[in-house]
Design goal:
Helices cover about 50% and strands about 15% of the residues. It is an alpha/beta fold. The chain has a 5-stranded parallel β-sheet with strand order 2-3-1-4-8, sandwiched between helices. It is globular.
């Protein structure tokens, strides 16, 4: 059963995706992670993507769709789309891709969180350069400032998590991604969950939607 998770940056899509992978055996397709890996590798795609991501802008649809198609051909079932589609044009492109490769997404879940909390969540986020562990300056700081508890590598703030970029990211979401609610609602496959709660409570709601216990 394939699933699309969407919501504003910082809504908890990554956390819920991780729980679905761990508890229910899903495979996560996070376009953000795929693009950041390409940036880290210094590939041509990564260089192109970085110029957009550092400004809080969306990476061109054609680049993202190519990554999605490649992933789905390798893993066509029990896939979570995290971070795609982000706008109506991408949703329509995904519809065509579904028909092309006969892989379908019939469950769409939106995680809703108030905007002021989203800003706090994102701007306080810190990431380990070594193992990728995620921390937060307020909610879950590393035991030693600037150093990962797990591997000892540097903990830093990603360029797309800095305050000015976060403002742009949230504004971009409001303008381009929010209309997806209407699109999927009209198709009759949209479900909304309250993301302003403990991750475990949000996960229980998602499991009920998917018919899992």
């Amino acid at each position: 059963m394939n699933l699309i998770l969407f919501g504003a940056p910082g809504a908890g899509k990554g956390t819920q995706s991780s729980l679905l992978v761990e508890k229910l055996g899903y495979s996560q397709l996070s376009t953000g992670d795929l693009l950041r890996n390409a940036i880290k590798a210094g590939s041509a795609l990564g260089t192109e993507a970085k110029s957009f991501m550092d400004k809080g802008l969306l990476v061109p649809d054609e680049v993202v769709l190519g990554l999605v198609e490649e992933f789905l051909k390798a893993k066509p079932t029990n896939v979570i789309l995290d971070g795609f589609p982000r706008n109506l044009q991408q949703a329509l492109m995904l519809n065509k891709l579904e028909e092309k490769i006969q892989v379908f997404f019939k469950n769409v879940i939106s995680i809703d969180v108030p905007q002021n909390l989203l800003f706090e969540r994102i701007s306080g986020r810190r990431v380990c350069r070594g193992c990728g562990a995620v921390y937060h300056t307020k909610y879950s700081p590393p035991k030693t400032a600037g150093q990962c508890d797990k591997c000892g590598s540097e903990v830093y703030q990603r360029a797309d998590d800095k305050e000015e970029v976060v403002k742009t990211r949230l504004a971009t979401y409001e303008q381009q991604t929010l209309p997806l609610r209407d699109h999927y609602s009209q198709k009759g496959i949209l479900k909304v969950v309250d993301g302003d709660r403990a991750p475990e409570m949000v996960f229980e709601d998602i499991k009920k939607i998917l018919g899992s216990r």
